[in-house]
Description:
This protein has 239 residues and is mainly alpha-helical. It has one domain. The chain has helices at residues 38-52, 61-73, 77-83, 89-115, 119-129, 134-143, 150-177, 181-192, 215-222, and strands at residues 10-11, 226-227. It has a two-stranded parallel ribbon. The radius of gyration is 18 Å and the shape is globular.
Amino acid sequence: MWTTRTHGAPNEPRAMAAPQGERQIQSPWAGPGVPATATDERRFVGELEHLVGGRTAPFRRLELTVMMTAFRSGVALAELLGQAPGIDPRRLLAAYRAVEERRSLAEHAWDAIANDPTPETFDLFRVSATPLLPVLISGLVRARAEPEGFAFEVDAASDAVSQTTVRVLALETLLSDDLDVTRRIELGSMLCDGGANSAWNLPAYLPARVGTLMPVRLEALIGGTVEFPSARPRPGRAR
C-alpha cells in the first residue's frame, strides 16, 4: 500500500459508507479515527519542529502519505512515531512544509483574483490558484471569453467560496467541541469520508490548512497518486 517514490500525493480516506465501487482501506495507525482539528494540526507540527530543531531532510512519497494519514486519523505525533519508529521526523517536517508552501501560494493566488476580478489579474494568477479550486477556475476560464461580465462571475465564485468555507469551518468547530465519540466519528465522516460529497471535497471549499486537503487538490499541488487509508483504525486497535 505504501510507496517510496518521491514527490507523490495521496488519495483520500474512503468513506464509512463509501459510494458503490469505492475501495475502503483501514488506517494502519491506532488512534481516535476522526480527522485532526486545526488545533491538533498546529500541535502536531509544533511538536515536530521542536523535535527536529527545525531541521529537514528530503522527503519521499512515503512520508507524505504517513503524514496525511495521521491527519485523517487524528493521530498525535508521539503516537505516530511510537507505531512507526522507522519514520524520519525531519522528512515529515519537509513534507508538511512543501505542501503548506504550495497550498499557501494557491490560496494567495485566489485571493488576488477575488480582490481584483479583472481578466488581466485572472490570467496572471489562475494557474497558481487552480490546484485548490479547479472546478471554479475552469468555469472562470470559460467566462473569460465574455470580458464585460467577467467581474460578476468572479464575484459570484468568490461568494460561493466564502459561504462554503464558513459552513465547513462550522463543521470543524463542532468536531473540536463535541466530546461524544459517536458524534465525532459522524462529523469526521461528513468532513472527509464521503467521497465527492465530503465537505472538504466541495468544489467551492478553499482549504485553509494542509490537513484538509483531499486527493485531487493534493495531487495537483504535489503531483502523483497514492491512497490514503480510511480514518478508521484497524479492528482491535481503536482506543
